[in-house]
């Protein structure tokens, strides 16, 4: 992700506005959520209110990815049935209900085989949920980044749409292609 951080910064203002619009849309909030108007549920991501989808460890593979220095991560993108079916049909934009999850681990050398890099500790689980009405302000996708099952902070969520929008808007904001 590092090469795009400058782009992400320049687009950050746009995202702040988009985020504020989304948050404002959700702020018909109950009194007890007044302290955190954009996030009534502590397990949901800021701005978007996305939670970790149930059962994603059983979802089908879209593609793996290897991220070099400085992150040194192995990643795997999986999708729910709606997303996988859309991939197989080559359908863009993705239909509402499509969910993509990216799992990531620091890579480490296999203890048994020097040249093999295998998953070490898990870093983030990232989620994109397609709902063209609810997330109209962010290209139809809601974003969530989770660390140890808990959503990352607001600042991190202000970067998601900017980077995806600046680089893969023409692919419905999705980088990962179905692995051959
Ligand atoms: C600086 C650019 C950048 C930022 C910021 C960013 N992403 Fe991504 N994202 C990527 C790239 C590149 C991929 C492709 C897979 C890979 O290389 O890991 C990706 C892939 C994904 C995927 C898998 C679907 C796809 O588009 O391939 C999800 C889900 C995702 N990102 C969620 C998020 C969330 C949530 C945030 C914010 C918390 C975020 N991303 C912020 C660059 C970015």
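Q: What amino acid sequence fits the structure above?
A:
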């Amino acid at each position: 992700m590092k090469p795009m951080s400058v782009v992400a910064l320049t687009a950050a203002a746009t995202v702040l506005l988009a985020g504020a619009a989304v948050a404002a849309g959700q702020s018909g909030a109950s009194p007890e959520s007044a302290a955190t108007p954009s996030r009534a549920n502590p397990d949901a991501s800021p701005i978007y209110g996305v939670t970790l989808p149930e059962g994603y460890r059983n979802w089908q593979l879209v593609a793996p990815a290897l991220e070099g220095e400085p992150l040194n991560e192995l990643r795997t993108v999986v999708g729910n049935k709606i997303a996988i079916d859309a991939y197989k049909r080559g359908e863009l934009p993705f239909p509402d209900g499509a969910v993509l999850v990216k799992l990531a681990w620091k890579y480490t050398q296999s203890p048994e085989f020097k040249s093999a890099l295998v998953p070490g500790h898990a870093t983030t689980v990232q989620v994109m949920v397609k709902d063209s009405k609810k997330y109209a302000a962010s290209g139809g996708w809601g974003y969530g980044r989770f660390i140890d099952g808990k959503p990352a902070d607001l600042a991190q969520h202000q970067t998601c749409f900017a980077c995806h929008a600046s680089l893969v808007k023409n692919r419905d904001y999705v980088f990962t292609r179905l692995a051959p």
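Q: And what stands out in the fold?
A: The beta strands are 60-67, 73-79, 99-109, 117-130, 141-147, 150-151.
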